[in-house]
Request: fold
Amino acid sequence: MSEAYVVDKNLGVKMEVGAGDLPRVNADGDPVVELTQEQKYLFDARGWLLVPGVLGDDEIAAMRDFALRVQNDPESLPEHERSQVAGPLEKLTDHPVVVGFLNEFLAFPHLSSPTCYGFRMEGSNLRNPAATPEREGQFGPHNGSGLFRFAYDSHHYQSIPGKSFSGLTRVVWELAPVKYHQGGTLLATGSHKAAYTAPESIQDPHSAVWDTYECPAGSVLFFTEALAHSTCPWTNVENERVGIFNLYNSVGSRWSAWNPPEKLIDQMPPMRQTLFRGTHCANNVPGFHYGGQNHVDRQPT
Ligand SMILES: [Fe+2]
Reply:
């Protein structure tokens, strides 16, 4: 647990995070995979982190097939399963690697419990040539300098020595191989903390501003939406992109109006349902009892 002095809600006191404040297993009972010190350092310094080869071959095939079926043959599925968080893709929403990452960089411990996530999920879509032809081919840099932005629209990043907070946070599951600079996402390393306006050269996808990655199918990329980034035009002729773009935010903030179909949420385990709970802070932990010492003051403020 971080020893950093994170200021709590009332009167500047230090936030105390107890052992039971954040979930240690996900909705399927799988142990959360915590970030290593190196992974925390890399994400914080760069604004992005790739974890290669997370999924097994069988899982990848089932997920890729389902994602493409939702896109290409939705009529073959019940209406509530025409979603990129349905079927085998549901497990990606709170994959142990994702929960471990978000526990560190997004979760609000006071709005979390062993059975409730301290963050929300607010987007999921497929990046595939058939799904998004206009986006896969186009270079379009956006965002950046989140450290210096107010939290108006969640595209912010905050740091104190020993702890950082990424507001709107993107989690990309690459379900097909990505070749270096032949597709995927371009990332302007460190630009979430950029104090200078981006140079003209950021408009050139081959400029020194940009970094990118290569990875096998089944890898996951995390980046803060406070970072400048862009689609990397897909020129890989050996396979097409099958990228699941999941989006997370703090419990009290929302960027999009997206929600999964209600009937799909109803069929999820209760803990996974907490990913999609209402966007508010007061009284938003299931089972919370007034007066709990580790929870924020529930009085209107
Ligand atoms: Fe973006």
Remarks:
- The pocket of fe (ii) ion is lined by residues 142, 229 (CB under 6 Å).
- Residues 290-295 have pLDDT under 50 and may be disordered.
- Residues 57-72 form the longest helix (16 residues).
- The two ends are 28 Å apart (CA to CA).
